[in-house]
Amino acid sequence: MMSPRIYRVEAIILKRKNVGEADRILTVFSKQYGKLRLIAKGIRKITSHRAPHLEIFSRVEMMIHRGKTLDIVTEAQTLDGFYQLRNNLALVNGCYYHCELVDVLLPEKQEHRDVYELYARSLAAFNTQEGMDITGSCEQFALALLRMLGFLPQTRELSSVQIQPFIESISERHMRTYHFLKQD
User: Fold this and answer.
1) DSSP 24-50
2) 105 with 167, same domain?
3) Count of CB atoms within 10 A of residue 98's CB?
4) How many CB atoms lie within 10 A of CB 67?
5) Engineered SS bond to 127: which of 75, 82, 102, 110, CB 3.0-4.6 Å?
6) DSSP letter at 4?
7) Are residues 124 and 68 in the same domain?
8) What would the pLDDT profile of 108-137 be if each residue is shown by its tens digit?
């Protein structure tokens, strides 16, 4: 059975990369399809109506058209912009750490609704709480994510200093955002 040429997803923006004069490649984590790489054509033009909706950490609903190499974002509507957390640099660092964790630990195009719900709840908690232990929250998120994905058995515990080396051994790459998280 062929997949539809146009589909709708609820997603959280993980990262973005500028391409050409006006386009941007987005990595998103969607509720329905898992991690996706998409292209938003013309998003960097001043007249773009989609640009404010496609910012990092935003939870959005998107209409996507299947493309030859990358699928194309044709519409976007913000469901939750998590605007409060953007005023606190420590919270932004924690959110970037979450984004990088989801990006390095999840394969593309595999649905993980449980991880999506955990991630959305975590961003909402960052958005509503002042004075929270950001590093502790990030460690708890990392442990929960590792358990959900089957990398860490329920019976095994990791100390704070063991979490990051464990994640880097799984992903086989150095995580850039962890350094900023520890600068609180």
Assistant:
1) EEEEEEETTTEEEEEEETTTTSTT-SS
2) yes
3) 25
4) 12
5) 82
6) P
7) no
8) 999 999 999 999 999 999 888 766 788 888
